[in-house]
Design brief:
This protein is an all-beta fold. The chain has 2 helices and 42 strands. Among the domains are: 89 residues, Cadherins (Immunoglobulin-like), CATH 2.60.40.60; 104 residues, Immunoglobulin-like (Sandwich); 97 residues, Cadherins (Immunoglobulin-like); 96 residues, Cadherins (Immunoglobulin-like, Sandwich). It is found in: Membrane.
């Protein structure tokens, strides 16, 4: 056989090469037929193919019959461990055709999301500001991107919607933060038991749950606030261990120990954590050598020294340049107000947002940008200088950040990769949204009757904070922070059985945007006595020729309210 193959490779002219692809589900049983090399079954006593496995592991999972060309599984497959296998087959005939075989494992939703901890306890000050966030335990899902974690929901325990969830990508995994969404009052409620669920992309979705016990406490009423929610830094690949990368800073409005801040890097399953360290003053340094053209997302937590301590978090994205040379291959100058890779979502189409210059030693290359279709590099009269134009609409509510890569290519080959994180700034382009334009509710006539009405605003920070007010009536009031509509003074029964008014939800943007909700409220007398007539019986005598429409009797009744 070896002599025959030697004859094929040496003496036959230029054998052809083709690529054959196969797909197999990862749940395939042992012995599952993936297909035939030629696309159909072939019967032969002598081998028709000489099969080569480029790596030893492939032969432990797949088998190729050299006589028939049949490809089968001989072990259980797992997409999360290996998603594809390469095989080379050579026809044992005059053509000597070489066939490259690619077997791709099709991912299935065989893993459910799992939180690092099944339960967590938080202590939150009753004076925590709206928008204060708390990092929840990290969640992982062993499946690929299609079936990874897609969203988080609060299933129960969120009384008056005083909390909400936000999510962000950290090291390509979706992670959740618990955010204060309403006014907390320890005297009204001192504990919340939330059931939080992570849902993956399957249909139906697989889920993982987290029980979050929250205690509302007094004192220390200001959490540290970072100067930015996300920091970015770029370093060269040959940066030495212990080098200063970036300094993060948080401030605390309290005094004394309640305002003293300590920093730490949150422990996650990502290997990025072990690459960096942070000092007590917020200086991030390297602890090991960094891989060229890599990007690292690190979560930094700032905690004060109150009792209990309050904390907040920020993401630091560190991009390592794709070259070990001291001088960077690209010089990127952002021509925007922030002087950084940060564009407001209302940036003008066609505007120049950055100037990119290629270093001298790379001027025989061409620049290409991947990661977004909203930015287009345009070469200038100077071949090594490009202008970055905004050629697509930005919408922070749809995409809040882009992981860009500037590529320098020569003869179709990538010479340098330069990663860059682009963040999109929020503007107040969304008014608060009610679930519907009109709602029918019930209120008790007596003081204290209440109902909570809430709107949502997808904008960020102050632009997404909502304040409520009541229009068209003075019979009810509303808590401007929580949207709780309540009766301030007992409503007289002569008012009728219902009242109509509007509730206005207004955000904190400048200028502010608002939306009105039309409310029809049925007034209930659950704490009052039934109305009573002045008399139990009226008797009236009339003539038989009394004209139609003549008033016969005026009936009086009285309401008795329990005060």
């Amino acid at each position: 056989m070896l002599l025959f193959l030697f004859y094929i490779f040496i003496f036959l002219p230029s054998p052809t090469t083709c690529l054959t692809r196969f797909t197999v589900p990862e749940s395939a049983q042992i012995g599952h037929r993936i297909g035939w090399i030629s696309g159909r079954q072939e019967e032969s006593v002598a081998p028709k193919y000489f099969v080569v496995f480029p790596d030893e592991q492939t032969s432990k999972f797949l088998k190729v019959d050299e006589r028939t060309g049949e490809i089968t599984t001989i072990a259980h497959l797992d997409y999360e461990k290996r998603s594809k296998f390469d095989i080379v087959a050579v026809r044992v005939e005059e053509s000597g055709e070489t066939i490259d075989i690619l077997v791709e494992v099709d991912d299935e939703n065989d893993n459910a999301p799992s939180f690092a901890d099944q339960s967590v306890k938080l202590e939150i000050s009753e004076f925590a500001q709206l928008g204060t966030s708390f990092a929840l335990p990290t969640v992982t899902d062993g499946d690929g991107p299609k079936f990874d974690v897609h969203r988080f929901v609060i299933l129960q325990g969120n009384v008056n919607n005083v909390f909400k969830l936000t999510s962000r990508k950290v090291n390509e995994q979706l992670q959740a933060d618990l955010v204060v969404n309403g006014q907390l009052d320890r005297e009204f409620r001192d504990k919340y038991e939330l059931l939080i669920e992570a849902q993956d992309g399957g249909k139906p979705a697989k889920t993982g749950q987290l029980r979050c016990s929250i205690e509302i406490v007094d004192a220390n009423d200001n959490a540290p606030v970072f100067t930015r929610s996300r920091y970015t830094a770029s370093v060269s690949a040959n940066v030495s261990i212990g080098s200063h990368i970036i300094t993060v800073q948080a401030t605390d409005g309290d005094i004394g120990e309640n305002s003293r801040i300590s920093y730490e890097i949150k422990k996650t399953s990502s290997p990025s954590n072990s690459n960096f360290a942070i000092s007590s003053s917020g200086v991030i340094t390297t602890t090991t050598t960094l891989l060229p053209a890599s990007t690292h997302d690190v979560i930094v937590v700032a905690s004060d020294h109150g009792n209990p301590p309050l904390s907040s978090s920020a993401v630091v994205t560190i991009s390592v340049m794709g070259s070990t040379l001291a001088s960077p291959p690209l010089d990127i100058i952002w021509l925007v107000e922030s002087n950084s890779a940060h564009l407001p979502e209302n940036s003008t189409l066609g505007s120049i947002v950055a100037r990119v210059s290629i270093a001298q030693m790379y001027r025989d290359t061409k620049l290409r940008l991947i990661g977004t279709t909203s930015l287009c590099p345009q070469q200038t009269d100077q071949s090594h200088v490009y202008l970055l134009l905004l050629c697509g609409i930005l919408d922070r509510e749809t995409t809040s950040e882009y992981h860009l890569k500037f590529l320098l290519e020569k003869d179709g080959q990538i010479i340098v990769e330069h990663p860059q994180l682009l963040t999109i700034g929020d503007i107040n382009d969304n008014a608060p949204q009610w679930h519907s334009s009109q709602i029918h509710i019930s209120l008790n006539r007596t003081a204290g009757g209440s109902r909570t009405l809430t709107a949502k605003d997808p904008d960020l920070g102050q632009n997404g904070w909502i304040r409520y007010s009541v229009l068209d009536t003075d019979l009810v009031s509303i808590d401007k922070e929580t949207g709780r509509v309540f009766v301030t003074n007992t409503i007289d029964c002569n008012v009728g059985s219902e009242i109509k008014f509007r509730v206005r939800a207004e955000d904190g943007g400048s200028p502010a945007l608002s939306t009105d909700l039309q409310v029809i409220a049925d007034l209930l007398d659950s704490e009052s006595k039934p109305p009573q007539f002045e008399k139990a019986l009226w008797q009236v005598e009339i003539a038989e020729d009394t004209p139609v429409g003549t008033c016969l009797v005026k009936v009086l009744f009285f309401c008795f309210l329990t005060l």
